[in-house]
Amino acid sequence: MTTLNEFSSCVAQYDPHALPVSAAQAIVRQWATPVTAIERVSLHDALDRVLAADIVSPSNVPAHDNSAMDGYAFQSAALTSQAEAETVELTVAGKALAGHPFGGAVAATECVRVMTGASMPAGCDTVVPQELVTRGGETIRFAASAVRGGANRRLAGEDLALGSAALRAGRILRASDLGLIASLGIGEVPVRRRLRVAFFSTGDELRSLGEPLDPGCVYDSNRHTLFAMLRRMNIDTLDLGVVRDQPDALEAALRSAAASADVVLTSGGVSVGEADFTQKLLRTFGDVAFWSLAMRPGRPLAFGRVWSGERPGLGLPALFFGLPGNPVAVMVTFYQIVRQALLLMSGATPQAAPLLRAESRELIRKRPGRTEYQRGIAERDAGGQWHVAPTGSQSSGVLSSMSEANCFIVLEHERADVSAGESVDIMLFDGLI
């Protein structure tokens, strides 16, 4: 069995103690195997699920040529036959409404009153908008130059052609997708089963909500943050609570999590402190690719696999992410390292979060040799230029800065200090968090 450590050591820039973010992301992608189970769900239950197979259009959409606006349908030959007079004159032969087509024949000197969405009468290929027409009785007149042949007509299959893929497998279904599927007459879709993620916090100092705070203790915020981030991704969660800094308790929690979930997330306990037992335990029944990243915040981050059995290869396996204990570092590492892995394991085709260029309003301190994700407040001026400034203290324990910020300021691995007025990349929270 190839271990993660053996595989990872072949990756460029591999350093288990200070791995560049890009290398860490590459390693994680290689081991994020999608779940295979598929189920069929109704459209009402399909929002944010991952499509397991292509949706193929069983018909043309629209099914018939139809009018793109209210007006009059006619044969475009009338434009050339009457062009010398500069005015086209046609007789109204009837009316067509959406769902109520005109069934008669239309002569070259005739037209049909049509409403938006109405099927085009046989032989008609052009619609003149009603506001360009002068009507007197059953006759209409309009300038020959007002429209071109074929104008204002939607063609059958223009949206989707019979047999074409309407949506591809791997797509996370959005509200617009459900409407598109419904327009094809499809009421159920195949989706991947939801990914299952177990998570817990470690530390004797942590207390759950409702418990009294002893001296030196704090309330556990990380589990609530992780739950919210996982729920936003439509993932099934298993909250295992707070696990004390005791090897036996931590081992039992890790084995139980591996037996119940596809992925195990922990916060705290992966640094080199005297009470951080995770590293020692994972050497016994786990397999670890790296322990530390060249990243701020989020340096102490472990990635590997754990098994529910007594040693690697025994029992049920799960991917393992040991996140830092500091609250901001938990969020940063989740969105920059963990999130893409969870999308891949869910069967989705992840898209890189878009980056915008913004002008820094002030000096930003940065040390080369690590990637930094500083919390920032971005805004766009009247001319459309984005500007950004850090929220203030970038300590990974200042959780309020994440609520105050609306973006990450992404500072590349080799970048040094950023001067005021210099351009930086920003990753907006909206749509990401």
Automatic annotation (TrEMBL):
Reactions this protein catalyses: adenylyl-molybdopterin + molybdate = Mo-molybdopterin + AMP + H(+)
A GO cellular component entry from the record: cytosol
Metabolic or biological pathway: Cofactor biosynthesis; molybdopterin biosynthesis
Top EC category: transferase
Domain called MoaB/Mog: residue spans: 198-344
PROSITE patterns given in the database record: MOCF_BIOSYNTHESIS_2
Cofactor: Mg(2+)
Keyword Transport belongs to the record: no
Listed GO biological process terms: Mo-molybdopterin cofactor biosynthetic process
Domain of life: Bacteria
Pfam families: MoCF_biosynth, MoeA_C, MoeA_N
EC number: 2.10.1.1
InterPro entries attached to this UniProt entry: MoaB/Mog-like_dom_sf (IPR036425), MoaB/Mog_dom (IPR001453), MoCF_biosynth_CS (IPR008284), MoeA-like (IPR038987), MoeA_C_domain_IV (IPR005111), MoeA_C_domain_IV_sf (IPR036688), MoeA_linker/N (IPR005110), MoeA_linker/N_sf (IPR036135)
GO terms of molecular function: metal ion binding; molybdopterin molybdotransferase activity
Transmembrane segments: none
Keywords for this protein: Magnesium, Metal-binding, Molybdenum, Molybdenum cofactor biosynthesis, Transferase
UniProt similarity note: Belongs to the MoeA family.
Functional summary from the UniProt entry: Catalyzes the insertion of molybdate into adenylated molybdopterin with the concomitant release of AMP.
Name of protein: Molybdopterin molybdenumtransferase
Source organism of the structure: Paraburkholderia phenazinium
High-level lineage: Bacteria, Pseudomonadati, Pseudomonadota, Betaproteobacteria, Burkholderiales
